[in-house]
Design goal:
CATH architecture: Up-down Bundle
Order of helices and strands: HHHHHHHHH
Strand content: under 5%
Mean pLDDT: 95
Low-confidence stretches: none
Shape: globular
Radius of gyration: 17 Å
CATH superfamily: Glycerol uptake facilitator protein
Oligomer: single chain
Length: about 210
């Protein structure tokens, strides 16, 4: 995959997630916010953009895992750029103050949590993302494809699980970046990595046992 295309598709994925995050912050009803956030992943899946939390799920399918890991790093960076563009861009609008205030409360809770808690919540988040993207790719029923996206996203948001790309947006619109924030983001990213790989590891182990 060309570097230019990867950057463009990754930045656009970050923008989509950031728009979903902005909607989630804008509504008071948690269920409605979670449902509307799903539009971000829906757009990414239908337009073929590159989201770190989705692409990490298929590392084991690659024959060149080293290159795939580098590709994931580029996607992660592109997602960060996209979310930051929207987050800091929104701070310049009339909606910025209200969004920043809500995001700051959310970010404070995340950044005051323990790293172990953050890691576990991140693992569980990407189990939900795996369910969403795997069903979108392979579910033969059109309703199942799209229902999985909305259910997967709604579950991780309502349960308070940690999605590293969504948090890139929240950290940006709240303007709370620091070394402490970066450490927590890296732990979230590793947790998402582990959660995304877990179902594929189990699938391959089961295949070996059957063989």
């Amino acid at each position: 995959m060309g570097a230019k295309e990867t950057w463009l598709r990754s930045v656009m994925a970050g923008i989509c997630i950031a728009v979903g995050g902005a909607v989630n912050l804008s509504v008071d009803n948690k269920v409605v916010g979670a449902a509307l956030f799903s539009a971000g992943l829906f757009t990414i899946c239908t337009l073929g953009y590159y989201l770190y939390t989705g692409k990490v799920c298929y590392l084991l399918d690659s024959n060149q895992k080293g290159k795939y890991l580098l590709w994931l790093g580029q996607i992660w960076a592109g997602n960060l750029i996209g979310t930051a563009l929207v987050g800091y861009g929104l701070r310049l609008t009339r909606a910025g103050a209200a969004l920043a205030e809500k995001a700051q409360g959310l970010c404070q809770a995340k950044l005051n949590d323990s790293l172990l808690s953050i890691f576990i919540l991140s693992v569980l988040c990407n189990l939900m993302i795996y369910i969403a993207v795997e069903n979108y790719k392979n579910n033969p029923h059109p309703l199942g494809k799209y229902l999985a996206i909305f259910l997967g996203v709604m579950v991780f948001i309502l349960a308070g699980f940690e999605h590293c790309v969504a948090n890139m947006f929240y950290f940006s619109v709240a303007n709370v970046w620091s070394l402490h924030t970066l450490l927590y983001l890296l732990v979230m990213s590793l947790g998402n990595f582990a959660g995304g790989l877990l179902p594929e590891v189990v699938k391959k182990l089961c295949s070996v046992q059957k063989g």
